[in-house]
Automatic annotation (TrEMBL):
Protein's recorded name: DUF2959 domain-containing protein
Coiled coil: 42-153
Keyword Coiled coil: yes
UniProt cross-references to InterPro entries, sorted A to Z: DUF2959, S2_sf_CoV
Amino acid sequence: MKRLITSSLIAATLLLTGCQTAYYGAMEKVGYHKRDIMVDRVKAAKESQEDAQKEFSSALEEMQALLNHNGGNLEKAYNKAKDEYESAQSAADDVSNRINKVEDVAEALFDEWQTEIAEISKASLRRNSETKLKETRRSYEQLIKTMRRAESKMPPILTAMKDNMLYLKHNLNAQAIGAIKGEFASLQTDISGLIKEMNKSINESTRFIEALENAKG
């Protein structure tokens, strides 16, 4: 059984890889190269992080409104906070998916670049291309490092939010709300830290995009 599962995973991986290779090949035929795809995917990852910043901030605001709730419909306030938590979770998933796509095209681009360098017969041109590859790869590694660092701060925040939502779901009263107020300051600090890390990643994305586009021009 274990061997069957492993074989299935390998087959799925090969199928996905094949699909990506076919996609890149098809795009190249219409003049849309891996470098162009990489620029677009970094832009998309950057935009997803900007969206995530907004969603996490909104989730924090709604939770604060719930904790400060004084009279009125408590369940309505809870539902608003829950909806914002779910939006933050969706935004976090989108960030991860887009970073994965950046990594996928980066690997394809660098492999292609390295292979084509070996085909350059003139030594000076080959050395120049090798230098540019190293510079681009180094810049990319810094980019993906900042992206992943920001990404890693989301799961603990989402876990804390989920814990609070689940606790309040069956204990929706003033006493239960009071019980989780002590965790709110920590959540504020964590989200502030997340937004700070995302700003670093967004700025790094901008620099990387500009460098690739300038190199192309």
